[in-house]
Amino acid sequence: MSGVRVIQLQKLNGLLALIARDNPFYANKLKSTAITSLEDFALLVPFTTKREIIEDQQLNPPYGSNLTYPLDRYTRFAQTSATTGKPMRWLDTPESWDWMLTCWDRVYDAAGVTARDRIYFAFSFGPFLGFWTAFECAARRGSLCIPGGGLRSAARLAGMIDLSATVLCCTPTYAIRLAETAVEEGIDLATSKVRTILVAGEPGGSVPGTRAHVEKLWGARVVDHHGMTEMGPVSYGCPKRRDVLHVAESEYIAEVIDPANGKPVGQGTHGELVLTNLGRHGSPLLRYRTGDIVEAEPEGLCECGSYDLALRGGILGRTDDMVVVRGVNVYPAAVENILRTSGGVGEYRVEVRTDRALADLHIEVEPSPDHADDPGLAHRIETALRNALALRIPVTVVPTGSLPRFEMKAKRWVRV
At a CB cut-off of 8 Å and minimum separation 6, what does 28 contact? Predict the structure, then answer.
């Protein structure tokens, strides 16, 4: 057994002994806590689903029964952004919160962020976890942390430049929006000292076309990361391979399964990511079906020197986002990559139209300023889509500024 597997098993058994006794939610789910291997874990411990958590919180309001300690031990509240349904509420003890800050250390180290950096956090500081843990981890490490909550985009840009921020934390979509705002406000991003943009919340940081687009707009390096309010900070961007996210396996047990039958899939095959967090004792999750679609690479030493599980392409999509169009599985991240690499797209929206249970797509695009008078934009994108997906997808060019803009997770796919 490898060193990391020994660490995982030790942490897992300590967690199981604690929650089987003191956590009502898992005391009812666990049939056995005598886990001698990770193979036993997968056989003896059932999956946890988002639906279970939501139903438990409805039956045991307001926080549910997935609490290992008395309520007065908890000091932090968060809730999911509810992009796919009812929000989940989450509580953390100081110890669980500190564990998440430790996970963020891995993210910053891999991104080359140090105590000398000045980090601008361009998010709302609302009740979802967002970059809260990133902010506090950076402060603990000695970086200057600049909050951008409650400000307009122009004010955030001005603050970044005036305060000589070197790192920007936001979603990929908002990095694009900030660049658009810079043009509108006459702000020259060349005067910005931002050298690293750490993105999360969407797959864009690992989508080559989107990453390249953001880097061109900012003249800065984009580094991806992903996490979940209910799970914690999960992965860090590989320092050597731009299209890989590593799961921090000393803190998480990761599995990749067939979403249809729950069985493990082979390496190099798309599947649903299942996670167990090993240090969030106050409100843990065991074998949690994240709904994220990933492709795990074979185990082994990465170019960056890590043995941590490598996810090629990062988060490829979600089980509930995939659309089957005339027999072809279409993921939003794949469409975004095609649009961004085609060039000339400022913003876009995908309409999913359903007729007699058959789905079809129609895409609206706003041209970027340098392609405002490009008569061949729609045809070029349609051709790129057809070549990549073997589908004819109509593309319509719409006026600049007519499509919605987003600060956090973008909602570009709509059902009509």
Answer: none
